Amino acid sequence: MSALLNSIFGFIMEATRPTFPSITLTQHLIEEQKKHNNTTADLRLLIEVTSRACKLISYHVRKGALGEACGSANSENIQGEIQKKLDILSNNILLEANAWGGSLSAMASEEMEGIYLIPDCFPRGNYLLLFDPLDGSSNIDVNVSIGTIFSVLRCLDDHTPTEQSFLQRGSYQVAAGYTIYGPQTSLVLTTGYGVHCFTLDQEIGSWILTHRDMRIPCDTCEYAINASNQRHWHAPVQRYINELVDGIDSIRKKDFNMRWIASMVSDVHRILHRGGIFIYPADNRTPNKHGKLRLMYEANPMAFIIEQAGGAATNGKKRILDIHPKSLHERVAVFLGSKNEVDRVTRYHLED
Ligand code: P6P
């Protein structure tokens, strides 16, 4: 009899439980502003403006072949990569959205050789914004998830920054985030107080907090690397990946699974949700480059997010966030994700 009463009571409680309104990005940022003094009103405005720009990018990405921004732009960016029309459109959307607000003094992008100074007709502010406007854009035409990655630094040069002003270590970032344009459009953000994920409510156009304080498991059975480059890898990476491939027959005594989406944002988003290790190593193909991914607007923001979620991020030898940048578009090897795996592959490099 008591079991029946308990289940009836439980049903009544559940049915009458007040459903609190969902928390929007704005509410979350105001909460953070109250709790932490580094989330200034200017930084809050910058994040909100950038998130609105990403909504517009998402609108164009979702149009696909029905939109005017599909296909190649028949031009190359500073990286020597063929630009998609959406690369250029996304870059311009972010520049136009952030030019007038007064939070920024300058911007830098994967798609632009030099920095973009806020025009004299607009007020300048205390921050610098760096972004990869559309990461993974080779996946656009085949309908695979892509994203926007952004990083925020303080402007330390009284509103007249140069390229040198951007060359700050990743540990100096005040905020970092990415949006992923996939089955859902999501925004993942850190301002140094944990990692939080917001899902875009397409009906009302609001970013709704759906995952607070995301945490990456220290261990994993999943790794992400472009295995077609195996013959070019350096010895520590060969050693580490061979153990994962040999699985239960290796010293690891367990089998592993592999994923490679060729879209960093997508691979990182999976790792944030269920753990894993993402690797884009330097290799013998280009001895003078340190890998493919860019330090300032890919590796640094992702490393900040991963560390804030309890993971680790190194270049194989040292913490990515401790690297002192020498140029705006410099590249870096990336090992990031579940801490115990990143620590192991980093140890293999140091033992080499
Ligand atoms: P590969 C996309 O071009 C990107 O910069 C990352 O998003 C992705 O992880 C990587 O390059 C894929 O590189 O050599 O496998 O095509």
TrEMBL record:
GO CC terms in record: cytosol
Pfam hit, one: FBPase
Enzyme Commission designation: 3.1.3.11
Domain Fructose-1-6-bisphosphatase class 1 C-terminal, chain residue ranges per copy: 216-349
Binding-site residues for Mg(2+) 1, renumbered to this chain: E110, D132, L134
Pathway: Carbohydrate biosynthesis
Record keywords: Carbohydrate metabolism, Cytoplasm, Hydrolase, Magnesium, Metal-binding
Localization (cell): Cytoplasm
Binding annotation for Mg(2+) 2: D132, D135, E298
Transmembrane segments: none
Catalysed conversion reaction: beta-D-fructose 1,6-bisphosphate + H2O = beta-D-fructose 6-phosphate + phosphate
Domain Fructose-1-6-bisphosphatase class I N-terminal residues, every copy: 23-211
Cofactor note: Binds 2 magnesium ions per subunit.
Location (main, coarse): cytoplasm
The protein's required cofactors: Mg(2+)
Residue sites binding substrate per the record: D135, G136, S137, S138, N226, K292
Molecular-function annotations in GO: fructose 1,6-bisphosphate 1-phosphatase activity; magnesium ion binding
Gene Ontology biological process terms, A to Z: fructose 1,6-bisphosphate metabolic process; fructose 6-phosphate metabolic process; fructose metabolic process; gluconeogenesis; sucrose biosynthetic process
Family: Belongs to the FBPase class 1 family.
Quaternary data: Homotetramer.
Name this polypeptide is given: Fructose-1,6-bisphosphatase class 1
Biological source species: Candidatus Vallotiella hemipterorum
Gene that produces this protein: fbp1
